[in-house]
Design a protein that fits this description.
This protein has about 190 residues and is of the alpha+beta class. It has one domain: Multidrug-efflux Transporter 1 Regulator Bmrr, Chain A. The protein contains three helices and nine strands, in the order αββαββββαβββ. The longest helix has 18 residues. The N terminus is likely disordered.
């Protein structure tokens, strides 16, 4: 039980560090854009279930392992949703992740349930969503229209990058999340 509590405290400390950063660099993402992102090595924890329930344990393990990796630098956490459009929320398959330095090849002892993967990106369409996660639909619809209007189609899972979230307080209107999809020309 103590390990779970410690991991949860580490999660909140790590994410709170992010909320203290200057988020003005993301202001241009109020409107959708297409850009190219190189492949990134990620620390991954897989979880299935409603993210309002499953995220706590997934992020606890993710941060516990992450802070045991020498040379790891704090970055905004991410999640990819593999079956968002086809499964009920209590069956969503999520990959919770943090970027890792390229030189990391092994995980520390006690990392059971976590793994290293390389996330492929290439061209992506992305937009910044302000507000609670349950209010993302209009932002996603705006991004999907942009993708279609630019002659692209979605070519990968729904991804979110959490710039500011629950750790900053109970006001969900202040959350900031980048919503991202890999895309390809039609």
């Amino acid at each position: 039980m103590k390990k779970k509590i410690l991991a949860w405290v580490i999660f909140f400390c790590g994410v709170s560090f992010l909320s203290a950063q200057d988020l003005s660099q993301y202001a241009s993402l109020k409107e959708p854009r297409i850009r190219t992102i190189p492949a990134q090595k990620m620390l991954i924890v897989e979880s299935t279930g409603d993210p309002n329930v499953a995220a706590k344990d997934a992020f606890s393990l993710l941060y516990k392992v992450f802070f045991g990796i020498p040379g790891a630098r704090m970055a905004a956490p991410r999640a990819r949703w593999l079956n968002l459009a086809t499964a009920p929320k209590n069956e969503w398959a999520g990959l919770y992740a943090l970027p890792l330095p390229d030189q990391v090849t092994n995980l520390p002892p006690g990392s059971s349930g976590a793994k290293i993967e390389v996330w492929q990106y290439g061209e992506v369409a992305e937009i910044l969503h302000f507000g609670g996660y349950d209010k993302e639909t209009p932002t996603i619809e705006k991004l999907m229209k942009f993708i279609k209007d630019k002659g692209y189609e979605v070519a990968g899972p729904h991804e979110e990058e959490y710039l500011k979230g629950p750790e900053s307080g109970p006001n969900a209107a202040e959350y900031q999340t980048i919503i991202r999809y890999q895309v390809k020309k039609k």
